[in-house]
Write a structure and sequence with these properties.
This protein is an alpha/beta fold. It is built from ten helices and five strands, in the order βαβααααβαβαααβα. A five-stranded parallel beta sheet has the order 2-3-1-4-5, sandwiched between helices. The longest helix is centred in the middle third of the chain and has 23 residues.
């Protein structure tokens, strides 16, 4: 069986940008957030269950989940977040593991922001954690997503502390510099994963 590789880290720590660098280097990437988007899209497998549990107010005019409306509730209410996770996590996990275990010539890396929060760390052989300081996280969230400082703080607080995720990971990538530095880190990680994959008997 192929070795399973995953990326995690704090919100706004650069997982998406790092993933694009991996893809540039020939790595096949699957993002858990993209799997969630598909599940919540019109006709998606999670729509009916979420509507039943949380009411019609979270469904948009197109029949899919209104992600902004749901997000506002999830980041302010632990009970709502638990309900959403109970619906989505088993579906996302099933799809990611099936993808990771499908043979192919390229390195595969899954991006799973809530890997530790969901308790999935044992599913993955190697975990890479993207980290930066909380001040940088807040600034990025406010700039890129148009959030207020309070909204940014709530989103950061909804996840495990970055330092704790880093301590549980096999490799840590610090992303407080520029894109060139992140590209160099991506190259380093790809070489490490390729060596690890060969040692494990992958092809």
């Amino acid at each position: 069986m192929f070795k399973r590789f995953a990326i995690t880290g704090g919100i706004a720590c650069g997982k998406s940008l790092f993933s694009r660098e991996l893809e540039r280097l020939g790595v096949e990437v699957r993002d858990a957030d993209e799997v969630v988007h598909a599940l919540e899209a019109p006709g998606g497998e999670a729509v009916a269950a979420l509507r039943k549990k949380l009411g019609p107010g979270i469904v948009g005019a197109d029949g899919g989940i209104d992600r902004r409306a749901l997000g506002e509730r999830v980041f302010r209410d632990d009970e709502t977040r638990a309900v959403v996770n109970a619906v989505l996590h088993p579906l996302v996990r099933e799809r990611l593991l099936a993808w990771a275990d499908t043979p192919g010539p390229r390195l595969k890396v899954a991006v799973i922001p809530l890997l530790f929060e969901a308790g999935w760390e044992r599913d993955w052989d190697v975990v890479i954690c993207l980290v930066c300081c909380e001040a940088v996280q807040r600034e990025r969230l406010m700039r890129s997503r148009g959030l207020t400082e309070e909204e940014a703080r709530l989103r950061i607080a909804a996840q495990w502390p970055v330092a704790e995720k880093a301590a549980r990971s096999h490799y840590v990538v610090y992303n407080e510099s520029d894109v060139a530095a992140l590209a160099r880190e991506a190259d380093r990680i790809v070489r490490l994963l390729a060596a690890s994959r060969m040692d494990h008997g992958g092809t």
